[in-house]
Every structure is written in structure tokens, then in C-alpha cells.
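Whiteboard transcription, Tuesday session. T.W. wrote the C-alpha cells on the left side:
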């Protein structure tokens, strides 16, 4: 029984060693390439357990499939307005096709060098199409940095695909913008001039608006004064007409006219439930004690 157990144990050891020679695992973060006598014959892009002939017939080479970052400093180039600038960019990329990657660049270091060269070419081409004001501007709406990055990304992705590097560009960004000291001074002077010009334009617009408001106010004032003057004239004319009637009445019968005036005064004073305490011997309230006997003018003459 003991010999059988030893035999099984030895068999298991040999089986394990055999499996280790012919099987290998590809993890989630890996890609693999199987080479036979040094020549690539199969690429593996999905995780799992795979088999091959034992070495030295078949050999495996694994690649990291996670996103990697490469920083690139572009050489000094000029914008559309002939201003010199230096761009420091970064590229996020990953290995997508291990067979093409192995045949073209043969290593991460070589891939980064190739990316730097392609990015510099793309950057010089793209940056030369844009004005400096699209990179630096006092007006945020005029800055087109995101559009420039997208344009560089599209151009770099196409260049990498055309080169069959077996890698995929995930994103590209501009990390830093460098400009010469003299250029910096000129840019700030231009920005200052633009701000002053905008300030002058706003002030001129404000003055023009104020002048229009004053003109409108004067015009409305003149209209209101004219309307008020016309109304005052109408009221004076109406008053003169009413006074003329009283003057005529006064001239014909002064005592009767004064009586009517007193009656009108009492109506106005005692209107709307008015309580008024006053001696009854004061005009016109003496009428409340009794109405005087009045006769129209000329009654005694008939």
C-alpha cells in the first residue's frame, strides 16, 4: 500500500511538471505571443489557460496590456502667427496587437521612442494651423486648446495605425505650454491693449446710451409740460367761464348770488356725512337757522 502511494505521488509530480511545460496562464492585464523556434505563430489577447509545445520548441512572450503614459516635449515650433512656442504633451496608450507590436517596435522602450517622433511631427503640423490666441487669451471662449488636442489625437492615431505598431492611442493632452520671455511680454502687452480697447468700447457705448436716455427724458419732459400747460389752459378757461356766469349773476342780483354761494359752500362742507361744530351765526351756517326772504332783482318794480 505504501509503494502504491509513493508511485501515485511520483506520477503526480511528473504530471505537474508536464503541465507546467505545456500550459501557461494569461491574466486580465496581459497579452501573449507564442513563438516556435523563435518565429511568432500565435497571439493571445484574451485571458485564460493556454497550451503549447514544451521548450525549446515553443516559447511564450507576455506583454502588459494596461494603459501606459509617455511624455513628449515637442521641439520649438511656430504657430500660425509665427510665434515660437514649445509644447509638453503626454500620450496614453496600450498594446492592442502583440504580434504587430513584436514585429514593428519589439519593446516598450522602442514604442515610446516611435511615439515621441510621431507626436512631434503631428504637433508641428497641427500647431502651425492655429493662432497663438487660441492657446492663450483673456477671453476663455476664444481658447481652443481642447480642439487642438483632439486634432492632434486624431492625427496621431491615424499615423500609428498606418505604421502597424500594434498599439492603440487612448488619449493625448497638452501638459505645459512654454514661450520665450520676449514673446510673453509681447503677448501680455497685446492682451492689455485688447482689454483697454474693450474698456473704451464699453465706455463709449455707455456714453451713447446715456445721451439717448437724456434726449428721451428731455423729449418726454417737453411733452409732459406741453400737456400740462394745455390742461392748465383748459382748466383756466373753464374757470373763467364759470366765473363769468357768477360775475353776470352778481351784476344782476348781488344778494341772490351771495345766497347761492352760501348754499354751495354748505353742500361742500357738509358732504359725505360730515359732522361740523360751529356757531350758527357765522356765514354761511346762519342759513340753517332760517332762509332769508329773497326776491329776484326787479320784483318790486313790477
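and on the right, the sequence the group agreed on:
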Amino acid at each position: 500500500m505504501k509503494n502504491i502511494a509513493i508511485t501515485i505521488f511520483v506520477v503526480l509530480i511528473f504530471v505537474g511538471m508536464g503541465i507546467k511545460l505545456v500550459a501557461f496562464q494569461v491574466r486580465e492585464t496581459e497579452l501573449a505571443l507564442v513563438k516556435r523556434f523563435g518565429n511568432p505563430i500565435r497571439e493571445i489577447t484574451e485571458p485564460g489557460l493556454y497550451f503549447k509545445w514544451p521548450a525549446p520548441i515553443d516559447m511564450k512572450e507576455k506583454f502588459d496590456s494596461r494603459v501606459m503614459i509617455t511624455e513628449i516635449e515637442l521641439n520649438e515650433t511656430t504657430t500660425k502667427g509665427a510665434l515660437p512656442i514649445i509644447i509638453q504633451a503626454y500620450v496614453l496608450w496600450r498594446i492592442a496587437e502583440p504580434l504587430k507590436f513584436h514585429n514593428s517596435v519589439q519593446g516598450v522602450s522602442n514604442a515610446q521612442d516611435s511615439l515621441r517622433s510621431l507626436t512631434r511631427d503631428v504637433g508641428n503640423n497641427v500647431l502651425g494651423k492655429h493662432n497663438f490666441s487660441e492657446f492663450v487669451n483673456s477671453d476663455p471662449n476664444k481658447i481652443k486648446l481642447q480642439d487642438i488636442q483632439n486634432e492632434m489625437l486624431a492625427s496621431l492615431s491615424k499615423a500609428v495605425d498606418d505604421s502597424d505598431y500594434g498599439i492603440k492611442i487612448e488619449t493625448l493632452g497638452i501638459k505645459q505650454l512654454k514661450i520665450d520671455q520676449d514673446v510673453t511680454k509681447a503677448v501680455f502687452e497685446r492682451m492689455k491693449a485688447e482689454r483697454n480697447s474693450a474698456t473704451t468700447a464699453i465706455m463709449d457705448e455707455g456714453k451713447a446710451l446715456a445721451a439717448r436716455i437724456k434726449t428721451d427724458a428731455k423729449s418726454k419732459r417737453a411733452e409732459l409740460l406741453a400737456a400740462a400747460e394745455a390742461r392748465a389752459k383748459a382748466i383756466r378757461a373753464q374757470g373763467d367761464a364759470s366765473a363769468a356766469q357768477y360775475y353776470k349773476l352778481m351784476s344782476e342780483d348781488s344778494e341772490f348770488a351771495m345766497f347761492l354761494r352760501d348754499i354751495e359752500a354748505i353742500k361742500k362742507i357738509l358732504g359725505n356725512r360730515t359732522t361740523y361744530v360751529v356757531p350758527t351765526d357765522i356765514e354761511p351756517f346762519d342759513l340753517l337757522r332760517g332762509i332769508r326772504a329773497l326776491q329776484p332783482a326787479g320784483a318790486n318794480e313790477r
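Someone added at the bottom: The mean pLDDT is 80.
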